[in-house]
């Protein structure tokens, strides 16, 4: 694409590490391939033998249709494939479960049970709600019950992909009579300060994070939802419980305590290091910790 004017536009660049060597690359969000010059490739291996490049029949085209033929190509192994294959189970389909800890909801023993009826469900959401209830039941996150003194209606939360997450409206029931876990949730500024000075970062986003923590047996009776499909009791930590934020944050920080250059914000784990080698070591340390303390069902 061409620009017109007296001043040229400075391209946006980002510094990345290739073969443990820093190199500035221009950002092009529409590019399907990353390209460097032959001279840059040689410079990346200035301290050792330059690996041979393979032939390629790839042809690129400029904005106006002119062909740009490439001389050679090289496939690079992504970092996640370089890590120990023993952690691959952490990225498979299935719900993880934390070992050795459960979530306890501290409810006032003098509290009077509250049972609320199920809310009418919009026809357009009925099937999606039933699909999520089926997923929750299949994973063991919830189980159907016939009777209960406690029950709260649900709030269907529509996610970006169009699916629905079923959440209990616990502010009407258990949140009113339970003690709030006051564990402090870190501010973004605190995380930025903790991870400052690094150039490369890795973010791990835990799938169905709260559901990976089992609920204390005595707390289950307070976590029953009332739906158009009947009553369901939670066996795992549900969304919507006021104490869930503090409980989960405290658990995650304790789980990864001692690993340097790691920041935790609920279900997001940020990992870095002062060097690329340290960054990779910290990633592996986090994965090892998750592997040791969690088990995954498929």
From TrEMBL:
CDD domains assigned to the protein according to its UniProt record, in alphabetical order = RT_LTR (cd01647)
Annotated Pfam families: RVT_1
The family database entries (InterPro entries) matched by this protein are listed as: DNA/RNA_pol_sf, Retrovirus_Pol_polyprotein, Rev_trsase/Diguanyl_cyclase, RT_dom
Domain Reverse transcriptase intervals = 159-292
Instruction: Please give the start and end residues of each transmembrane region.
Output: none
- Name by which UniProt lists this protein: Reverse transcriptase domain-containing protein
The scientific name of the source species is: Paramuricea clavata (Red gorgonian)
Q: What is the lineage of its organism?
A: Eukaryota, Metazoa, Cnidaria, Anthozoa, Octocorallia
């Amino acid at each position: 694409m061409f620009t017109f004017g007296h001043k040229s536009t400075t391209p946006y660049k980002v510094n990345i590490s290739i073969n443990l060597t820093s190199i500035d690359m221009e950002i092009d969000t529409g590019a399907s391939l990353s390209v460097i010059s032959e001279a840059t490739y040689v410079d990346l291996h200035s301290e050792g033998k330059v690996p041979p490049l393979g032939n390629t029949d790839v042809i690129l085209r400029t904005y106006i249709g002119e062909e740009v033929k490439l001389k050679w190509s090289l496939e690079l192994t992504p970092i996640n494939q370089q890590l120990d294959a023993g952690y691959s189970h952490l990225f498979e389909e299935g719900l993880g479960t934390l070992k050795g800890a459960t979530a306890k909801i501290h409810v006032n023993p003098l509290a009077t049970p509250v049972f609320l009826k199920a809310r009418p469900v919009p026809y357009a959401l009925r099937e999606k709600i039933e699909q999520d209830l089926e997923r929750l039941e299949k994973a063991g996150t919830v189980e159907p019950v016939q009777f209960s003194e406690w029950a709260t209606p649900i709030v269907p939360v529509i996610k970006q992909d169009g699916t629905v997450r079923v959440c209990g409206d616990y502010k009407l029931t258990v949140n009113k009579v339970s003690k709030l876990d006051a564990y402090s949730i870190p501010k973004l500024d605190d995380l930025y300060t903790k991870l400052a000075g690094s150039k490369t970062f890795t973010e791990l986003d835990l799938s169905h994070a709260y559901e990976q923590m089992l609920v204390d047996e005595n707390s289950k009776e307070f976590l029953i939802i009332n739906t158009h499909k009947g009553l369901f009791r939670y066996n795992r930590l549900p969304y919507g419980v006021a104490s869930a934020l503090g409980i989960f944050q405290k658990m995650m920080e304790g789980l990864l305590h001692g690993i340097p250059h790691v920041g935790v914000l609920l279900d997001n784990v940020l990992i870095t290091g002062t060097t690329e080698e340290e960054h990779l070591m910290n990633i592996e340390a986090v994965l090892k910790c998750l592997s040791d303390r969690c088990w995954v069902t498929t």
